[in-house]
Design goal:
- It contains 6 helices and 11 strands.
- Strands 3, 6, 7, 8, 9, 10 and 11 form a 7-stranded mixed β-sheet that branches. Strands 2-1-4-5 form a 4-stranded antiparallel β-sheet.
- Helix 3 crosses helix 4, helix 3 packs parallel to helix 5 and helix 5 packs parallel to helix 6.
- With about 230 residues, the protein is α/β, with parallel strands linked by helices.
- It has one domain: 3-Layer(aba) Sandwich (Rossmann fold).
């Protein structure tokens, strides 16, 4: 198994009055390239904390976070930023698109930060917008796009750096059922096509069958990953 995301005995604690609050409690997670995990659980169970640690946005109190075999804990802040930029795609619940930029420009700006040639960046951005079904909307700005279209731009933007890991936080929370299913099916497609290890936090268990495995969180503890039934027709 080509493990690209590996959390080993990860604990995350925050100060809480005279004591501490344990947001993650000895979490272990291994995810291979091309594997799609649904992460479910009640609010406050630690799902967002797990994503933040896996994204290297937060340093755990204890344990290891390995991205493609690289130990993020042994890196400087600048090196962690570079690892996150080059190896991790993050899809937030809200797309947070820049209002003055077109759909194409939302993608290209990331490659500018990666110092990629402009022509190559534009070509890849156009190809990714085509992949997510938005080629005709490449020149539109966020206010001209529907909620589902903005989330598709969000997905395409996360793929621009050719990440090994894709971390997705409640991507359907603001969408209706039809658009929600289309977004999760798109995530299934890009996981297969780009061979990324995808973790999707979701409150809607109806989409779990579109993923490979499911795990739940409660009180900072992660259950064992379980295979799910074949995908919905």
């Amino acid at each position: 198994m080509n493990t690209v995301l590996n959390l080993v005995n990860v604990t995350l604690e925050y100060p809480d009055g005279d004591g501490s609050l344990k947001a993650l409690d000895d979490v272990n997670l291994r995810l291979a390239a091309g594997e799609f995990l649904s992460l479910v659980g009640p609010s406050g169970s630690g799902k967002s904390s797990l994503l933040a640690v896996a994204a290297t946005l937060v340093r755990p109190t204890a344990g290891l976070v390995l991205i493609g075999g690289t130990d993020a804990g042994g890196l400087s802040d600048a090196e962690r930023t570079a690892l996150r930029r080059d190896k991790i795609g993050i899809i937030f619940q809200q797309p947070n698109l820049l209002p003055s930029l077109t759909a194409l420009e939302q993608l290209v700006i990331g490659d500018n930060l990666r110092r990629k040639p402009a022509r190559a960046a534009n070509s890849r951005a156009a190809a990714l917008l085509d992949l997510v079904g938005l080629a005709p909307a490449a020149g539109k700005r966020p206010h001209q796009l529907s909620g589902g279209q903005r989330q598709r731009v969000n997905i395409a933007r996360a793929l621009m750096g050719d990440p090994a890991v894709l971390l997705v936080d409640e991507p359907t929370a603001a969408l209706d059922q039809e658009r929600s299913e289309a977004i999760v099916r798109l995530l299934r497609q890009v996981t297969d096509e780009f061979k990324v290890a995808t973790v999707m936090v979701t409150h809607d268990t109806g989409f779990v069958p579109l993923t490979d495995t499911v795990a739940s969180m409660r009180d900072g503890q992660l259950s064992t990953l379980q295979p799910v039934s074949p995908a919905l027709a």
